[in-house]
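Hi W.,

Here's what went into the run:
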Amino acid sequence: MPLSASPAFLAALRQCFGDQCSTALAVREQHGRDESAYIDVPPPVAVVYAESSADVCAAVQLCAAHQVPLIPYGAGSSLEGQLLALHGGISLDLSRMNRVLAIYPDDLCATVQPGVTRMQLNAALRDQGLFFPIDPGADASLGGMAATRASGTNAVRYGTMRDNVLALEVVPASGVPARTGTRARKSSAGYDLTRLYVGSEGTLGVITELTLRLYPLPEAVAAAVCSFATLEAAVRSTIAIIQMGIPIARCELLDAATVRAVNAYAGLGLRAEALLLMEFHGSPAGVREQTELVQAICAEHQGSAFDWADTPEQRSRLWHARHHAYFAALQTRPGCRAITTDACVPISRLADCLLASVADAEASGLPYFLVGHVGDGNFHFGYLIDPHSAAERAQAEVLNQRLVARALALGGTCSGEHGVGLHKIEFLQQECGPEGIALMRALKQALDPQGIFNPGKVLS
Amino acid sequence: MPLSASPAFLAALRQCFGDQCSTALAVREQHGRDESAYIDVPPPVAVVYAESSADVCAAVQLCAAHQVPLIPYGAGSSLEGQLLALHGGISLDLSRMNRVLAIYPDDLCATVQPGVTRMQLNAALRDQGLFFPIDPGADASLGGMAATRASGTNAVRYGTMRDNVLALEVVPASGVPARTGTRARKSSAGYDLTRLYVGSEGTLGVITELTLRLYPLPEAVAAAVCSFATLEAAVRSTIAIIQMGIPIARCELLDAATVRAVNAYAGLGLRAEALLLMEFHGSPAGVREQTELVQAICAEHQGSAFDWADTPEQRSRLWHARHHAYFAALQTRPGCRAITTDACVPISRLADCLLASVADAEASGLPYFLVGHVGDGNFHFGYLIDPHSAAERAQAEVLNQRLVARALALGGTCSGEHGVGLHKIEFLQQECGPEGIALMRALKQALDPQGIFNPGKVLS
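Here's what came out:
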């Protein structure tokens, strides 16, 4: 397909969408990139702002008729090049579809449009005593979070988007919306279309509505920081916590350098050592029981006394800092971009995988940050490269390749939560093998025979 | 495709499988039916006993070459006609692939062959302090449980097969095994092939290996029975328990008639009223906290004092009785078969759906039993029909149709855990609409272009 759109297509787009369509360069450029390290790809030919499912249907039908690629756009916070217009086409911006359509407090679920962000949903839920736990670093859109099968700091207890999407409305290649799933908690009714679209990264169609599981706000919440003299001690404590089956709500690792970056960025005074940032949810007695067990485990590994965040404000400041570790780290090297890794391994292999990768990064001399949803066995290095240095980029890619090879050899996955996008296509091939990739290709071909949905992502 | 196999195919089968292949009528008849109400379909032309993934590959390749249907067979306990050889072909019996391949206690998971049954796995785990929670009534095979996305009494706390399968090996139409997923707890690596095969009922390929999540045996377990003067009071208590977010491990409903059947079958002396059979897992303090809350809720709804099953033996007797409710009910009408329903609705609509369906069943005059995994909003009527009476069968079908229509109107699903098989194909169409069915058909066509895998099931 040509990277430049035909005049006939652009005319049809303008006729259909009028003011909801923009071809201004600044708008297109903003939509043609994400938070990943820059790759030099021209922006989409136009940006369409969908305001309804009907708009999405019209855009899909138009793109299908003209064989033009369509890239769904939520909040622009993806990390693996998911939004790059590799084969041209339009960006379909869903941020105006941002209504919370229904909250069902009695059924612990809500139905939202895809442009609603996670913070917006939680603000809407506050009066109901409910919350939605999935929290990638950015205030991502829920449609985008479903598309990348996102998770975040609460996944160790509450699961990922895979576990928390009950039902979807999607617009597939036919341009006619389909419903997948229901509001029932479980179902054995046919193929699991919901789970197929969760994690499909816009390559099988556009998500236009989501029904999400909610949880009662815990009666008691406690958060604490525990510092460790070594990274290994922090990791070994985490492994013990998980293996004991303690229902910890959050268990996050930061290495010493990242702690320093976060301190500088958020004005915190955390001890500049590897630390675990933990949260406990439950009844007051249940939280007490969990924290006593976890304190004992951390003490066995020479962890510091727990530093408690007692008020909601203190907790929110801590988690805000954790969520901004990525941006905090970027500021330690002005002008840099981060090549991020996203491996996830079985918990028993976490120390092996993480420590070998640290040694590798140290030996390279590249600056990096390290954070981890270690309760899930998931961690992120961010190699902070000069985007204009081909040598540094190559060095970071080699580190990432070795890390992924290490994770796969240990029974893990190349992506815990960021998705495949453009940057992890080869890693996906290594992980799934030719037979797995063949099955995925067959699905893509079946649901997107013309290849209009986000072409060149997930599969090459 | 012809119902009778060609002599060339049978000769090739014998040459390939020798003694592992049987064409004896009794063997074929045993493999050509399941636990569902009898439908007059000839048995498969042959039964092949697979002993390895390589055997499965050979069988798939042979069936593909000769365009002969292949129906995977586990323990024969499916309920929706999944095993009927509607279009002829062979039954591929996987019960000899019954080895627990690896237990990873530190990662809380295990890898098994598909013929391992749930009880066999739990026996193998006993020394490790771990268990696998999914428990459909029968001692089903784990491959079959994955294929039907089974759940059971523990799903309210531990989820279903959807949530507890980490990875699979499957043999698709190519006849070459593919691996889906890894042992990592979460992943965003490409399309969720694992979830696509979970619930595919043998229509997309054959599951030859499963990696399953395990859980530490709870420190404390308490089980109790609470009787209620009315079904409604039992259901309203359940709704309140779930809406409060109490992490109850099991919450099962039996109506009075079913309690009587279970008493007679298992020699129990349960009060012949509607009852909730509950179990609580956690630390001793956590269990105490949960049971106090639930007792208070049940008392508000005029439930009886809790009758505790204190020892493992007492608990196991109770749950054995619950798991055999189906067979207990069948014995109340000698020679009968059960037409079972399987709707699942959002918890807030459970009372509406269940009570209207009871009124409908009562008005019909057909004998029935009623059990429910009510914590999930899932319940089963079994209409006990004379299999030789077309009138009774028609009457039961009408009741089921009305029940499904009711469940769908309330935001629910036609199948909570039994799958679609042969008997719920029309209900699936109603639930998913033409657009959802079109997507499922496209998937089936993509992964099984020749239509050899369990044809005529899930989709017509």
